[in-house]
Design goal:
By secondary structure, this protein is α/β, with parallel strands linked by helices. Helices cover about 20% and strands about 30% of the residues. The strands form two sheets. A six-stranded mixed β-sheet has the order 4-3-2-5-6-7, sandwiched between helices. α1 packs across α2. It is globular and about 45 Å long. The termini are close together. The mean pLDDT is about 90. Bound molecules: 1-O-pyrophosphono-5-O-phosphono-alpha-D-ribofuranose and 7-hydroxy-pyrazolo[4,3-D]pyrimidine.
């Protein structure tokens, strides 16, 4: 079936306004740097770029690659590290930057891995949170938007690797099978 045009769910303006607010809150909570922003590839790349610029505290930017969705719309349940950190986070304040928390499988796995590396503090910032879908409890300190159980794309989020470059976050009206 041919998908219809994506329906805008959160506009670029709504996203940017909320990220400015999140950046202010994070800057207040971490008055001293360096704050290590660890973005989870690939989905968080765009959120990281905007959030980092909204934070006044000196930051260091790091990436970790994790994948659990493959080409589908539900988590495979098997989390794979596709790229590890290049630096030690021991004794540093670390903020994990995610695009979306859905089942919580990815982040509960990642928190486990990161805690073993003995950061001074470890928190999570996510642009989107789908609490209805949670299978594993995850404490998220900064949430951009809580959203219902709809599969969203754009602003870094993909369906089978497509749509990541959209400026808005959209819902596929007629998702391809
Ligand atoms: C997506 C998203 C989160 C994860 C959230 O990643 O970026 O990391 O799923 O889902 P969960 O809470 O159910 O684990 P994905 O595995 O699709 O990889 P990607 O970021 O490369 O698109
Ligand atoms: C992962 C994911 N990727 C894109 N859109 C969603 O709604 C998603 N939930 N979990």
């Amino acid at each position: 079936m041919t998908p219809t045009a994506p329906r805008i769910f959160l506009s670029e303006q709504q996203i940017q306004q909320r990220i400015r607010e999140m950046g202010e809150q994070i800057s207040q909570d971490y008055p001293q740097g360096p704050l290590y922003l660890v973005a989870i590839l690939k989905g968080a790349f765009m959120f990281l770029a905007d959030l980092a610029r909204a934070i006044k505290t000196p930051t260091r930017i790091e990436f970790m690659g994790i994948s659990s969705y493959g080409r589908g719309k539900t988590s495979s349940g098997q989390v794979r590290v596709t790229k590890d950190l290049d630096v030690s986070i021991e004794n540093h304040n670390v903020l994990i930057v995610e695009d979306i928390v859905d089942s919580g499988v990815t982040l509960s796995y990642l928190l486990n891995v990161m805690e073993q590396r003995k950061p001074k503090s470890l928190r999570i910032a996510t642009l989107l949170d789908k609490p209805e879908r949670r299978l594993r409890p995850v404490k998220v300190s900064y949430v951009g938007f809580q959203i219902p159980d709809e599969f969203v794309i754009g602003y870094g989020l993909d369906y089978a690797e497509d749509y990541r470059n959209l400026r808005d976050i959209c819902v596929l009206e007629q998702p391809p099978n």
